[in-house]
Known about the structure:
This protein is α+β, with helices and mostly antiparallel strands and 152 residues long. 32% of the residues lie in helices and 32% in strands. It folds into 2 domains: 41 residues; 98 residues, Rieske Iron-sulfur Protein (3-layer Sandwich), CATH 2.102.10.10. The protein has 2 helices and 10 strands; from the N terminus they run αβαβββββββββ. The strands form 2 sheets. The protein has a 6-stranded antiparallel β-sheet with strand order 1-10-9-4-3-2. β7 and β8 form a beta hairpin. The radius of gyration is 26 Å and the shape is elongated. It starts with a helix and ends with a strand. Bound molecules: FE2/S2 (inorganic) cluster. FE2/S2 (inorganic) cluster binds next to loops.
Amino acid sequence: xxxxxxxxxxxxxxxxxxxxxxVGVVGWAASVLYPVLRYLRPLGEAGAGGPLKLxxxxxxxxxxxxFVIARSGTRKVIVxxxxxxxxxxxxxxxxxxxxxxxxxxxxxxxxxxxxxxFDLDGRVLAGPPPRPLAxxxxxxxxxxxxxxxxxx
Length: 152
Ligand code: FES
């Protein structure tokens, strides 16, 4: 009487263990492959230097906040409108890499981390940043804004 019960329970336990083992193997493989594939994936079509087109959401933010931080590959670009002119600079501070922001009232680009200040062309005005912010070219094309990195 007990033998048939034991016989019917063993396959169920074994199949549950096999299921957990399978899930574990798949999970392990995914945790190894995902970072590798993500590393190997090429940057966006445009590459890190653009051209980059602002999305509708970024354009809305630009209109409301006077500036927006856009991404081009691994780079961040700050786009702002000052004196009726659209401008764009690298958004990564040259001191320790914090993200800068545009201060429309003072007409400057400011890094909150160590009070670094840049003019609207990215030149250092005050604070510890050792180099200017790289310039980008921002062009309006109809309702779109296209960014490309300025050649040095
Ligand atoms: S990181 Fe910007 S001033 Fe230090």
